[in-house]
Amino acid sequence: MYAKTKTLPKLAALLALAAFCTFTASAADLLADGGKKPDAPAARARVEVVFVIDTTGSMSGLIAGAQQKIWSIVNGIVSGKPVPEVKVGLVAYRDKKEEYVTQVTDLTANLDEIHQKLFALSAKGGGDTPESVNQGLGDAVNRIGWSPKGEKVYRVIFLVGDAPPHMDYTDDTKYPELCKAAVLKDIVINTVRCGGNAETETTWKEIAAKAEGSYTSIAQSGGVQVVATPYDKEMAELSGKLVGTGVYYGDAKRREMARGAARKAEAEAKDAAEGGDGAKLAVAADKSEFRAKTSAAAPAAAGPSGAPPAEMAGMGLGGEVGKADLVAAFEAGGEKALANTKAEELPDEMQKMSEEERKAFLEKKAAERKEIQAKIEDLGKKRAEFIKDELAKKGSGDKSFDGEVMKMLKAQAGKKGIEYNEAK
User: Fold this and answer.
1) 3-state secondary structure of 401
2) N or C: which end of the chain has fewer CB within 10 A?
3) What does the pLDDT look like over 335-345, one tens digit per residue?
4) Taking the model in full, what pTM does it have?
5) CB-CB contact of 401 with 160 (8 Å)
6) How far apart are CA 189 and CA 211, in angstroms?
């Protein structure tokens, strides 16, 4: 009994001393920071967007426009502040008795893959007005791998079509219930009606209202306009050069996968630059801007571990490529990126280098990357002004698929902390 009572004052003294030390350390931190408590790392901005597109015969113009403008759209998305990570998914739908009812491509940061999926789509079938809209929308809400609701992410579906849903099918969930499910998952549904079907307009407006989204209507053709510019060829060339600054590390399988993806992207950029096809050059220019914006923003968005966001570092080639890019890791973490890497995980050309040589090699690559990014940014501004002037000369007031999508994105993303200027 005596031993216990004697121990208590000692315990109280120790606790008081610990509290004083903690307070003193905190006070020192505040004084070192000018009396302000250091801010916690800001959460990264993220956008997850899924396009649900009617691919029946009457939608050929819209599909061609989407194929042409998907890179323009994602380039517009990463014009926000802070620059967001972007993942894109795709649901193509038709109807029963067609070649397929739906085709689903899950959310991915590999935007080259999404572009390829879009180019593989063709408009066929249909003709009987109602389509399997409910099935397409249901797959987007329930089969796509959305991030958990608690995470601060702008999740959005764009439902694009010209025909109303079949409400007589008994084996699917109807859109009113799907809208409720979307809201519970914090997913916004925007609707884009193509053409002039009145029943589609009524339904599309109802879906948007029920799922906290917006409605718009565009021409059956999609209204997409492609403007060739004097800057497209050089931007296509720079896109390949930017990807070429990648230095890939990790196990042999990861290194080879990343190098393969980079080689393919470099070859596509070269083909576009040398081919002289205006439409392909415009896509390559949009792709170039996207790669430059995301790779430039990746180091500053690094988390506590020092690793840059893989989706941003991947430049649209996917998160696995981003995880393997040692230049991006070096830009974000400095020499720590090298210190944490085993010699056998380095690319072949670096394994025989000394530590100083490795550092100098990465510094040179990082400087080369920054120079290319700056060139693309400068050309992108000139290109945007040229396109703006050309469209003004044409005097077309038609709403376009890409233009309407970006209007909705810009208006809604602010709720998730992503801000856009009026200019692209």
Assistant:
1) helix
2) N
3) 999 998 999 99
4) 0.87
5) yes
6) 5
